[in-house]
Amino acid sequence: MSLAEGLQHLDRSHAAYLFGGAADEITLQANRQAWQDLSLWPRTLRRLAGSHTRTDLLGRTWPTPLLVAPMAHQMLAHAHGEQGTALAAASQGTGMVLSCQASQPLEAVARAVLDDPARGPLWFQLYPQPRPDDTLALVRRAEAAGFEALVLTVDAPVQGVRDRELQTGFRLPAGLSAVNLKPAPQVPLAELLAGAPTWEQVAWLKEHTRLPVLLKGVLHPVDAAEAVARGVDGLIVSNHGGRTLDTAVPTAQALPAVVAAVAGALPVLVDGGIRRGTDVLKALALGAAAVLVGRPVLAGLARSGAPGVATVLRRLQDELVAAQALCGCHCPAQAPTLGLLR
Ligand SMILES: Cc1cc2nc3c(=O)[nH]c(=O)nc-3n(C[C@H](O)[C@H](O)[C@H](O)COP(=O)(O)O)c2cc1C
């Protein structure tokens, strides 16, 4: 399903929030282009019997390397909201990362899918809250609800410049809010910057949770090496889908350097502009352990709620299966042996 199909069901300003990017949307477009600029170099005559998409992540094996990226305020797209997305993801064996800015209680979302034996990973995304006690309370709730890892987003110390949202006058409608967070008054910039995540906060979080901690929004290999040194459990190469720093490097370009820097010490995931099974396979070929998908999920949600999300994820999974077979690739773990040409 194209993003345009999702747009038809939305108010213009809501669509600007859900599908827009920062400033001139150069990174938003470059993310797509960078995957398209890579050519798969298929192999033939390799054994495909028993091919599968099973994927090992953080000590467990999952049905597919696909996860839904954390995205705030999903009830803007459809009344089914995050719970609908989670149910649809579970029905397709896809993982789900729930945003801490979700529009529904994190416990209800977890409860809806936790006992499904065929689901993918269930992770919780975290922005550090202004008060450490509030961050800790969120962590405890996520642990108690059954989330299996924490994803600390580190690429958005301040909001990106969102021209499209400004032009359309986007505001959250009455009755919709980040229900898992304490209502926060507008914080002055100096205070925001003082509370921006640091390596010390990463260490603090690691000390205060029994869950694995992944960092989302790492693009530079020096930061990736630092993450390894500090005992982080995984990285997500991301530029927030082009919603924060416009003209930031596209993720398909940053991924190889990050993979090289961690040298297998921890799993590296990637998101941004992944729209086709061939994009997923290219990410795996570059060394990603798994991928996250953002806006296409929102397009499915906007079109018809949970069934729309399931359709989007099923197509992506079917495309991945086809792409693997057409490249002579037996399973995701074999993808790094594939060639890619620029
Ligand atoms: C509407 C929207 C809301 C988002 N909210 C969050 C969020 O709360 N936390 C976060 O870490 N990333 C957030 N992201 C970024 C996504 O997790 C992801 O990095 C990005 O959407 C991937 O790119 P793609 O949409 O091109 O697939 C959001 C993205 C969108 C489109």
Q: What does this entry look like structurally?
A:
There is one protein chain. Helices cover 41% and strands 13% of the residues. The chain is built from 14 helices and 12 strands. The protein has a single domain, classed as TIM Barrel (Alpha-Beta Barrel), CATH 3.20.20. Flavin mononucleotide (FMN) binds next to loops.
- The name of the CATH superfamily reads Aldolase class I
Number of domains: 1
What structural category arises from helix and sheet content?
alpha/beta
Enter the CATH topology name: TIM Barrel
The profile of the biggest β sheet is: 8 strands, parallel, barrel
Give the DSSP E fraction (strand runs of 2 or more residues): 5-15%
CATH architecture: Alpha-Beta Barrel
Strand order of the largest sheet: 4-5-6-7-8-9-10-11
Q: Overall pLDDT, averaged?
A: 96
